[in-house]
Design goal:
six-stranded mixed beta sheet; 14 helices; 528 residues; alpha+beta; 20% strand; four-stranded mixed beta sheet
Amino acid sequence: MRRRAAVIALVALFAAVAVSGLVVPFLPTLPAARGAGPGEARILVGEPSTFDPRDQSSVNDAAVGAQLHETLTAYDSALQLQPALARSWDIAADGTSVTFHLRENLRFSDGSPLRARDVVGSWLRLLDPRRPSPLVSLLLDVRGARNYVLGRETDPSTVGFRAEGDLDVVVDLERPGADFPAIVSAPIFGVVALPIWQDGQDLFGPGAPVSGGYQVESAGSREIVLTRNEQYWAGPPAIPTIRLVLDIDGRSPVAAFEAGDLDHTDISVIDAPWIPYDPNLGPHLREVRSLDLTYLGINTRTEPFDDVRVRQALGAAVDWTRLVSLSSLVGQVPATSMVPPGIPGGGDRNWLPAYDPDRARELLAEAGHPGGTGLPRIEFAVGGYAAGEAIKVELERELGMRVELVNYDDHLGRIDTAPPNLWISGWIADYVGPNDFLGVLLESDSSNNYGGWSSTAFDAAIADALATRDPEAATGAYERALAEIQREVPIVPLYHSTNWSLSREGLLGAGDNGMGILRMAGMAWAAK
């Protein structure tokens, strides 16, 4: 799932003093205020653009939408896939069919029954050719899904979703997909009510029926108030009211937390280094390695990077690990693979292009551009990412490229519709599997393959990985895919991140599992 591009300006910081070699902002130390109490919790979130699971494309959207619309499966804090609306599932021996068995007596928040047909209808909405989900590529292995979303077929029964009775949902796949139960844990697969999927009603505001742990009571510019769903399959959540805070009056999240206005908040890389040394705030600090990737994207459709030799020259000209180490912020770990650490099956080798500036210049000359002669101006959309300037310097010095850094008002939108030669963007896991960072981003017909790269060898490796249930065989196939990326350089992995948050003492279950989403229905205040 794409992350919103963040422009990080480290221009004017607070006065600082050095403590044991650490630069610590000189802030007044205040006693951390007490929590809101058992009746509610206040959580700072980024403003979502939608409550509709179909339209979610960012972490902000998913972080809120996941509270409203439940999925059939879900990941726990240990990144283990667990049943949610589905009590269990079966995968056919050949891997081309998955049957989900729903729990009995499921209901939406308005008391209406939640049946297998609601799951099928909710998932078909994601393929609506008039308004497909931005993450529709997660579904393209479903039989008939590709033709349906492209408008080649208008009969929804040709899509491999079907309800068998009220409790069973059967999914037929074009190719083996043992990871499909994990895929449908992504928030876009949240189940919506019949008036939405059947009648097309826009029921996503206050009072709208939901399948998740919470429903929207009110939504304003300063906060979104959620109240618990008394019909929730796991029982009414322990905290009756969640206040999703959108506006903290220009204060930092740390200041708002200290003032007692927040019970849980993410914090920035600026604050993370000094908080462990603060006697009041330190005990509230939480840290988790994010299942994300920030990467350099390359437009392979147009000159000069339609020539694989030019891409290979770019890859070899830069010592990527050193560059990222010198230009990154706290918690940003240089990537050696597209697949973040913590996701099994991605291999453990270094999959970066080998650093060899002399070979890079030879490749550029072989492509007809010795010393950069004849190369067009390179438009590089950096989106505020700190590594952009350093990459520009390296490419100009080693290859003679003329690189122009640009910042678009809509960085992600421009990459989607009219990608420049180069760009930096981020991706965070939709589910725990290597393919979410490989096939979803780079398969030839993926909607997220913004650079337009196509490789039959890569596509075949992904197909082989998804066709097996043998973990070693899957890892071997994913390593073939990674080797193809390393060889053809359609993309360069830059770094993985760390998330930090402040969480009030006694607020249980407020842990981030690395995908940027809290499962608020599982939160509770400890008994006092």
